[in-house]
Write the structure tokens for this entry.
Amino acid sequence: MSFPSERPRRLRRTGRLRALVRETRVVPEQLVYPLFVAPGRGLRREISSLPGCFHLSADEAAREAEKVERLGIGGVILFGLPEAKDPLGSEGYSEDGVVQQAVRTIRASCSELVVMTDVCLCEYTSHGHCGVVEDGEVKNDPTLELLARMAVSHARAGAHVLAPSDMMDGRVAAIRTALDAEGYSELPILSYAAKYASAFYGPFREAADSAPQFGDRRGYQMDPANVREALREVRLDVEEGADIVMVKPALPYLDVIRAVHERFDRPVAAYNVSGEYAMVKAAAERGWVDEERIVKETLNAIRRAGADIILTYHAKDFAAWAREGR
Ligand code: PBG
């Protein structure tokens, strides 16, 4: 059977009809909104590289999280700008670090929101690398203990999900073991399993002041040309105990999201990163694209590729549009 009896346009005639046959949906509950927390009180400063996103002190982060919760968004993920940096990133695992404080204030004011924390040293180290640096190299194994300490300190503060983003080998196992030993066996790990050495992180590094002071991250983050290697990374993280696996960035790696979705029986997250967001914002400001339609199409594409969860700076805008029923 084909034309003239086959006519796909029959199902595109009205909005309600199109909605009935729609294959993919994006709802705010599937989104996670990143927050950048900083020391102080009453601080709410717009991030120049991420228009519409703010550096927030813990009290302001709690107010922002309340708004995010009211919008029906699934969760937040916290990144920290510490008071001071040092070679071992010690503020990252201090009980009174910026993220630990913000987790406590957010937990005190939000009852439903899932509070995730990014577990990585780069925001806290003076050299800006994601691990311990010795002889000009980022050392894998000495980093694991620090990451495990950071995860435990976030768990003590009340984090619901720990999300390691450093790309050291073996860090999921190290974090799982440490959490279990401290009595946090119920807390899930969302691992940034396939994280690429990407130029799309540019605006984030300005926002988090986390650019490496020498070299780059290609010795630990993945080569953008590889997809089979991503499956290996995901397999290793699943074997080590990852509960959710993430692909990052999202839009340039839809094929990777699809491959991970097909091969693994774990929820898949995708990070629609800072560069993806900033490009949309910049073009929309110039009137070159329709922001709302671009964002909806983008998030839909990421879902269609196979992501269950999307981390995105567009989360609040998307949820507000969804609420208006547009
Ligand atoms: C920390 C980290 C980065 C991002 C999330 N966690 C930066 C990096 O690896 O350099 C990037 C997020 C974004 O660009 O939105 N390792």
